[in-house]
Amino acid sequence: MIDQVKTEERLSRQIFQLPVLVAALGYLVDMYDLFLFSVVRVPSLKDLNVPADRLLPDGILLLNMQMAGLLLGGIFWGVLGDKRGRLSVLFGSILIYSLANIGNGLVTSLEQYAILRFVAGVGLAGELGAGVTLVTEVLPKQIRGYGTTIVATMGVLGAIMAYFVAELFAWRLSYFIGGGLGLMLLVLRVNIFESRAFEAVKQKQVRRGDLMMLFGNRKRLAKYLQCILVGLPIWFVVGILITFSPEFGQAMGLSEPVMAGKAVMLAFAGQVVGDVASGLLSQTLKSRKQAIRGFIFLSLIFILVYLLFPMRDTTLFYGVCVLLGVANGYWALFVTIAAELFGTNLRATVATTAPNFVRGAVIPLTSLFLLGKSYFGVLYSALGVGLLTVAAALIALGYMEETFQKDLNYIETD
User: What is the C-alpha R_g of the chain?
Assistant: First the structure.
């Protein structure tokens, strides 16, 4: 009994080692920038003299440029993480998105804004996957779920911070603050070390970060697609229901206009609770899949409430945004299971590209939403897209391997 207590104490101390804390702070800055645009979309576009009737389509254009950067950046950083190491991604990505953040605060036209949202997306793409990969490899399997929960929770706090910073400062200064935080964190990363699992694989003559190993093998490709589909409901909620909450509020006929920044902040406040709850639930059940399935069903319930419940009060609407955020709290588990499903020589590639393909899926999802909006209206078009993402996620999860107890010291072979 005494030995077991000592073992648990030793394991708990490892959770807060430097790579975990640095990865968590990196994801905080990452999410700050990613959702700062959602918060300042309307004021920044108005300041650039975009007409009121163009706020939604031009906002979607900028969002899609950011997501396109995430898609391409996810591939680049994922391959680099397996070929050159996790640290190369953590250094390169934070430098690019910090400088792009500063550039976003200097734009004078919609075209410049679009280009810099793309560049920021490329930089943002590497942070979460490399951080989670590093954390899963440096922590024992008994506690790596706690480590990735810390990373995800700090990231969500970054999204909340974006709201309060934008409330206190002008949108340009808010971007400058994000860039400055990233550059400060870059200095802190000098002291972190590469994972032993990667260093061991680096000494072997094996293919690393090779996309053909992923896409040229039917079984691996199926696992990879399952990972992406499981995460779709999260970014349907974030990329459509929350980002464009003012338009949904108007369609519902709410008593007061909805502030996008407040909706983002409240949704991510809820996601802090969800991330912690899903992480603890996964550890208690000793199952990633059971915890994720529960949260997907929870997400379905609150999507239906958001789109079908007859709301007139704006306060009630904001309350539902909080609940949607709670249901979105399986993001950390989704990225963790993506990292755990693949060997060390492909782990960074998958853990970095999968969440960015989920984020990038906002492009076809928003396109479907806009297409359906012409025929079914705002609410029912979103409902159709939302049900599609939930159904795809549940089917994919059903075929997915359980990874809670999986040993990660292995490689993918030809």
Answer: 20
